[in-house]
Amino acid sequence: MNTGTNPQKLRPLSIAVAALLIFTACAAAQSDSSPPTPRIGTMTRHGVAGVVTSLSESTIVMEIPENVSFTVQAGPSTRIVSAGQAAALSDIHPGDPILANGDIDEQARTIQALSITIQPPFAAQMLHTLRASFGKTWTAGIVTAVQGNSITVARRDGQSQTFGVDEATAWRLHDQPGTSAMIRVGESIRVQLRPGATLASQVSIQGMTRPN
Fold first, then answer.
1. 7 pLDDT more than 70
2. N or C: which end of the chain has fewer CB within 10 A?
3. Please, how many CA atoms are within 13 Å of residue 12, restricted to the half-sphere of its CB?
4. Matching CATH topology for 47-129 and 134-212?
């Protein structure tokens, strides 16, 4: 196996999966019965990465690692980029990995795209790998219950998943160190799971989601 990968080649991939893998070490989890400090604003999801399965004149269907498909609507003002250069919808083909940014309707699973970035081909395999490991080595969703050291999330694929946290679990809040006292029902989170998928090694709190 070639272990001398050029870091420059990994930059486009990091854009495509950054929303899925924000798992870095931080402060140890804490137990605190006091209410968490209110946070101003809500989290609105803007970007979704996936692999194109079909497309028509102005519509792209892509499969994302969270076991669902999203329909991307492209309009005259949608900015399409490939390798840092302006591109066209005709440059997108089934099997291509893309990152779509815009207004997301979680219920309809549609994205009114402001921009679409065509990722390098090797990103497709990475996204397929993430899809295969979803729910096993990582998970994501909206928190529906917090009971002691147990957290339950509603995933985008309609499944509910419960995992535990302990003193070794690392926490992040908007890419900054956090604590377990910050978790609450309604938060969007992404979680790195330990072998067995029952305990979290890292929890990244994205923020409260905006209702569609």
1. no
2. N
3. 20
4. yes
Q: What is the largest CA-CA distance in the chain?
A: 55
> pLDDT confidence of 34, banded at 50, 70, 90?
very low
Angle between helical axes of 7-17 and 122-133 (0-180°, round to 10): 50
> Alpha-carbon distance 21 to 204, whole Å?
9
Q: Where are the extended beta strands (E) located within 119-199?
A: 138-147, 150-154, 160-164, 170-173, 176-177, 187-193
Q: Tokens at residue 166, please?
A: 């302990």
pTM for the structure as a whole: 0.74
Mean per-residue pLDDT over the chain, rounded: 82
At the top level of CATH, the class of 134-212 is mainly beta
User: What is the C-alpha to C-alpha distance for residues 199 and 163, in angstroms, rounded to an integer?
Assistant: 5
Task: Report the b/e string of 135-147 with b at 16+ CB within 10 A.
Answer: bebbbbbbbeeee
pLDDT, one tens digit per residue, over 91-112 is 999 999 999 999 999 889 999 9
Closest listed residue to residue 183, CA positions, set 169, 168, 195: 169
Q: Are 75 and 125 spatial neighbours (Cβ–Cβ below 8 Å)? A: no
Q: How many CB atoms lie within 10 A of CB 46?
A: 14
Domain ranges in the chain?
47-129, 134-212
